[in-house]
Design a protein that fits this description.
Number of domains: 1
Number of strands: 9
Helix content: 25-40%
Largest sheet: 6 strands, parallel
Distance between the termini: 36 Å
Structural class: alpha/beta
CATH architecture: Alpha-Beta Barrel
CATH topology: TIM Barrel
Length: 332
């Protein structure tokens, strides 16, 4: 793998989490995904500048829609996403399996993977999960911060609650369908319960190392090692609150990359920016998706070899996608 003159790798970048679909709905009068914007952290032109090849788009179910309107809100977001990206099918395409992804990237387009952030959207029904799969959803964050029918979120961690009986059924059904399980936001007990239940590798799409920043959403060394044993991948986030509690900067984010590569191993480390999910905060030097070459240069300066960077930026998440999302969507 060669480093291009502009600081981007030829293979590009997989970003396992953004919340930009919020802008598709709430700020559609002032935000245009197909054009370069002065608001938001991610849009199509800046994704192309930043070298994005695969972008996970999360459908985040806001607290005000829970629990009674979670499914309706999920479907509204899904419809809005499809309507928004329809005019740019020559530059970005939703993919449903590993083969789709390879084809779309080979054609020079960005591959979009749709996920749901919050299992409340299932409303306690496996049939809803199967229908969301048919509609193109390929990943599910089992919880957000609260408790739901699947498990306790990290905001309920003091209770010691983990996966419910329904939650175990969801994990097994996702394994059978070929959907990516995302353990961001889940309680520690739920985290380990899933790893005991799943037969497929999981992801933690956006989190960092708790050893460096003791945020409740970050992962302990024990969790990082358990993720390694599962074959999963953690996407490191650029959210300042998850980087340092006082003075977050790019240099400390690089500390997280180095630390997790040592604890979990280079094969279990990726990127999950959380662009447009940072509540208005930004990290200097990584203010939007077009700044990704700065991260790459920083990792090189920290001693990451090109073959290791290829894994972190692209191959690790690609491996999970290949292992999990191999089903033909027509078979669901």
């Amino acid at each position: 793998m060669r480093l291009a003159l502009d600081g981007q790798f030829n293979e590009g970048v997989v970003d396992a989490h953004c919340d930009t679909v919020h802008y598709f709905t709430e700020l559609k009068d002032v935000y245009d995904f197909t054009q370069k914007n002065t608001i938001a952290q991610l849009d199509l032109p800046r994704m192309e500048t930043g070298g994005i090849k695969v972008q996970f788009f999360a459908l985040y179910i806001e607290p005000e829609y829970k629990p009674g309107n979670a499914l309706k809100r999920c479907l509204q977001l899904l419809d809005c996403f499809y309507q928004t990206v329809k005019p740019c099918e020559d530059r970005l395409e939703v993919v449903y399996n590993y083969s789709d992804l390879l084809r779309v990237n080979k054609e020079g387009k960005i591959a979009a993977i749709l996920t749901v952030e919050g299992g409340e959207a299932l409303e306690g029904d496996l049939g809803v999960l199967r229908m969301l799969y048919r509609l193109g959803i390929r990943g599910l964050g089992l919880t957000w911060n609260q408790r739901n029918e699947i498990a306790d979120g990290v905001g309920e961690r003091e209770t010691g609650g983990g996966l419910t009986r329904f939650g175990k059924k969801v994990v097994k059904e996702m394994n059978d369908l070929g959907m990516i399980i995302d353990l961001s936001h889940i309680s520690p007990k739920g985290f380990y319960d899933v790893l005991k239940t799943t037969t497929s590798p999981v992801i933690v799409s956006h989190a960092n190392a708790k050893k460096i920043c003791a945020h409740a959403r970050n992962l302990t060394d024990e969790q990082l090692k358990a993720l390694r044993e599962n074959g999963g991948v953690v996407g490191l986030t650029f959210y300042p609150d998850f980087i340092h509690d006082k003075n977050p900067d790019l240099n400390i984010l690089l500390d997280h990359f180095v630390y997790i590569s040592e604890v979990a191993g280079i094969d279990h480390l990726g990127i999950g920016s959380d662009f447009d999910g940072m509540q208005g905060k930004t990290l200097k030097g990584l203010t939007d998706v077009s700044c990704l070459p700065s991260l790459i240069q920083g990792l090189l300066a920290r001693g990451f070899k090109e073959k290791d960077l290829q894994k972190v930026l692209y191959e690790n998440f690609l491996r999970v996608i290949k292992e999990v999302c191999s089903n033909d969507p027509k078979e669901a």
